[in-house]
Amino acid sequence: MGLLSEALQRDDITLPRAYQLINRSVRAVEKMKDMPGKHLKEVMESLEKGNFKGVTINPEGTKGHMKINLPQFYQSLVDNLCSRLFALTASNRPAASSQSGEFETLVSEIDILNAQRWPINVDSPWFEGEAKLEQLCKRFRLSYASICEGFRDYIDNGGAEIPENLKPVVTAVNSLPVTSGDCERGFSSMNLVLSPIRSVLGIERLSSLLFISLIGPPVHLWDPLPYVTKWLTTHRSADDTKSQKVDNLAQQGQRYSSLWDIF
């Protein structure tokens, strides 16, 4: 489970790959019902010896304790993993059970983009796959006509190369967030960008700053010269004749001096 957790937190993880890894972990837990894992074997051997990593185990102290039913425990673990991971919403929400089937439908639609999951000797037009592709295009509001043509070309070349007109749906699928880690990173960046000093930022500018913060290049790879040049050429310099002049503080003080005397 530790390996699965680390894999799901990677930035380049995609939904099909995550689904494959989760299924693999679930199968591993199911097999442990019949064959205990390495750590469980170590614990069972330590109980027989009465010593666990140098600590003496008192068998008398375990009297009255209920023994765990291992097959039932692992089956409960599998059920909880499936209910929490194979869903589009949190498992504690009322709609989670009904959306579990929708998640399976989404994964089956995405599978048609994986050439390794195609039927043997498939050829175009593959109507069953195209029906799933159409549903996938509706989810992402993409044009089905051009993408369907690219899908047929993709089948004809045996999945060797993704055609250009099929790439929009592939990009959309690969950009789906797999875990809440992406959302948490986004909220963390928003707290840094939208500080009390910058609370007047508009939505469009805030979105641009978040985009740069999340996927922009590091500082040592960023060349500010083109942006500074554009800033100066659009009459942003302090001595530009078209820029609004800054008010003289002395003149401003004289203008409001009578009002300030009241305070």
How does this structure look, described?
By secondary structure, this protein is mostly helical. The radius of gyration is 30 Å and the shape is flat. 59% of the residues lie in helices and 2% in strands. The mean pLDDT is 77.
Strand content: under 5%
Radius of gyration: 30 Å
**Number of DSSP strands?**
2
Number of helices: 12
Q: What distance separates the N and C termini?
A: 68 Å
Write the layout of secondary structure elements.
Elements: H1 2-8, H2 15-31, H3 38-49, E1 51-52, E2 55-56, H4 70-85, H5 96-111, H6 127-140, H7 144-156, H8 167-174, H9 181-193, H10 203-215, H11 225-236, H12 249-262
Antiparallel strand pairs: 1-2
Helix pairs in contact: 2-4, 5-6, 6-7, 9-10
Give me a quick take on this structure.
The chain is mostly helical and 263 residues long. It is built from twelve helices and two strands, in the order αααββααααααααα.
Which key phrases capture this entry?
mainly alpha, 263 residues, 2 strands, two-stranded antiparallel ribbon
